[in-house]
Amino acid sequence: MLKLNAKITESAVEDLAIQRLEEQGYTYIPGPDIAPDSETPLRASFEDVLLLEKVKQAIDRLNPTIPFAARADALKQIQRFHSPELISNNEAFHRLLTEGINITYQKDGNPRGDYVWLIDFDHPENNEFTVVNQFTVIENGINKRPDIILFVNGLPLVVIELKNPADENATLKSAFKQIQTYKALIPTLFHYNGLLVISDGLEAKMGALSAGYSRFMAWKSADGIDEASHLASQLEVLIKGLLNKETLLDIIRHFTVFDKSKKEDLKTGITTIETVKKIAGYHQYYAVNRAVKSVIRASGYKKKLSIRQSPAKYGLPTVDDQPEGDQKGGVMWHTQGSGKSLSMVFFTGKIVLSLDNPTILVITDRNDLDDQLFDTFAASTQLLR
User: Fold this and answer.
1) Are 157 and 131 in contact (CB under 8 A)?
2) Quick check: 348 and 357 in contact, CB under 8 A?
3) Cα angle 127, 24, 311; round to 5
4) Going by C-beta distance under 8 Å and a sequence separation of 6 or more, which residues neighbour residue 213?
5) How far apart are CA 218 and CA 230, in angstroms?
6) What stretches of 78-226 show up as alpha helix (H) in DSSP?
7) pLDDT digits over 211-269, tens only?
8) In angstroms, rounded to a whole number, what is the distance separating the alpha carbons of residues 298 and 320?
9) Helix (H) or strand (E) holding 16
C-alpha cells in the first residue's frame, strides 16, 4: 500500500498503479518503448491511438472463419468516426465493440452477412490486456500525454489520470479537469474509451465519458462481498475490484448505457436530443450479477454467464445453496436515489441474453414510477437490443 510522506511523487503513484495492474494480469509496456520513433514501434505516428497491429492480431485470432477482406473492412470501420460530437463517436464504437461489426462477403457466389468481434467477452483470458504509461498523443499539432492507458486487444478502453497526494494543489478535481482537457484537445483517443479513472494514489473514482465530476464514484469493494476499509487505498481497491479482466469486460458489455433525452430551448423552441453515457456503480454491478445468477438458478435454465463473485469462500450464504428450478429468485432492496431504475435496465439487458429472450414484467404502484421506468428503458435501447 502507498504510504503518504513528503517524498511521494506522481511517478510513485503511477508505479504503484502499474504494479497492481500487473498483478491483475496486465502486461506492462512503457509508452516510449512503442512510440513511432522507438526501436520497437507499435504505432506508425503519434496521431495513432490504436495499437493497430495488436488490433489486427485480435481480429484474426477471434474471427478465423471470416475472409481476410472482410476482416480488413471491419478494421476500417473502427477507424472511421466523423461526428463532430465526441459522445456520438464513442457510442458508435461501443455498439461495434459490444454487438459485433456487421460485414458482408461472398461465399459460393452469394453474399453472406456476418459479424467480426474485437473482444472475446465470454472468455476474458482470450484477450490481450496491456497497461501503458506516458503514451504521447499528437492531434492537430497539440501534444498530450495521459498518465496510464489500459489497452484490450490494442484498443484504448481505459484512461487513468493520476495526481500527487503530497501536493495540496493536485486534487481529484484537478485530475478530472485534466481529463476534460484531453477530451477537448485529443478527442480521437476517447472515441474508444470505456471508462475513466482519476486518482491521487489514495482516493480514486471512476466515471463515464460524459460524466460531470459529481458523477465520478469510488469503487468500494474488491470482491463484491465486503466493503473495503476506509484505511485502504481506494486506487488499489478500484484496480482489484473494477479493472480486473473479467469485471472490466463485464462492465463495458453489460453495465454501460447511452441515455437519450429530449431538451427544449425555451427561448427558441428548438428541441435537441442529449446523450449521456452512464456506467453502473459498484453496488449496482454486484447486486445485478447476484440477481442474474439467482434467477438463472431459480429458473433451472442451464446456460450460465460467468459471474465473478464467489460468496461461498467467505462462509456466506450463496444462491447455489438453494435448489435448482425452485422458481424463487430473491429480492434486491434499494434506498432512494441509489439508481434502482438503471439497475433494472442492467438486469434486464443481461438476463435477456442469458435466458434466451424471456419476457420481463415490471410492476409499479405509482404512475410517476411507471413513467420514470418507461423513459429509462426507452432510453437504453442499445443495451436492451
Assistant:
1) no
2) no
3) 105
4) 173, 176
5) 11
6) 86-99, 172-185
7) 999 999 999 999 988 899 988 899 999 999 999 999 999 999 999 999 888 777 778 87
8) 9
9) helix 10-23
